[in-house]
Target: Beta-ketoacyl-[acyl-carrier-protein] synthase III
Amino acid sequence: QIKAAITGIQGYVPDYILTNAELETMVATSDEWIVSRTGIKERRILKGEGLGSSHMGAEAVKGLLAKTNTRAEEIELLICATTTPDYVFPCTANLICDMVGIRNVGSFDIQAACSGFVYALTLGSQFIETGKYKKVIVVGSDKMSAIVDYTDRKTCVLFGDGAGAVLLEPDTEGNGIIDSIIRSDGAGAPYLHQKAGGSRYPPTHETIDKGWHYVFQDGSQVFKFAVTNMAFISAEIMEKNGLTGDNVAWLVPHQANKRIIEATANRMGVGMDKVMVNIQHYGNTTSATIPLCLWDYESQLKKGDNVILAAFGGGFTWGAMYLKW
Ligand code: ACO
Model:
């Protein structure tokens, strides 16, 4: 049976570093509060007129093609997970393909907030497993700074910009993506959303004045759902596949809050030395957190390692994936 394996990873983060010290000059917050509540020390911000999520996604894909010695013409499908698309339409995946020279193939976006990458990877893997395609790219890219209110201390300290891309190819040796679970609950919408800009509340002067084009989050409510669901779904995929804290080599959790990461690892019986964490550098980059973690820890991943990806985000959405590296 064909499995879809990740055969290349590339991340991209913008140069500008927004530190907690700089945030202290913008809102009533402190480095101590941010680090103790979230684990975040700094995040990257994409500066530059007319640059959106497609720019970062394209940079990641360009690097990925170069690193894996793959020509753009060999790619058969590109999926982009993003919650901050450049436009409502066309989709960001179309724009990325154009920027990197991938022509005449299917490309589309997946929107599942912070679970977007796990969703997109789940979908992309199906095209490999069925034998339809041999080279699929999955991108996660988010310019959260575009929808964050930098006068709202409850959200502006949390998010950052970044992108990551992976190449999926067939593996017949039993490695690759073994299982995935994706779930959602739209009743979570009131707790985490961007209210205006879509079809329900098209942008008007009034919606702008009310700040409805910014991320709204009821942090403590979302915290409870995130801890519970990420822990449960990770435990579920481990149990289903006969895994324990001992034989899991790596947990790659969505990076929203260090306390959520620690609670998830604890529930799974996985020691923190086996958990990928880079939230201190990038904050919550939404669809990009998981590929950015894989990129940062790439040199430590060994063939055959049991790796669990776990995510939770707006929707609510959540998901877990088990792959053999
Ligand atoms: N600096 C200082 N004080 C602050 C700040 C800040 N940056 N932000 C909030 N506070 C204050 C609040 O105003 C509040 O004060 P009050 O009691 O006087 O009103 C107090 O700190 C506590 O606020 P809480 O929101 O209860 O703080 P909490 O401990 O819950 O931490 C946080 C907030 C970090 C947002 C946490 O709730 C969290 O991580 N939630 C989950 C985030 C998540 O997983 N999101 C899903 C993915 S994101 C996506 O899908 C797009």
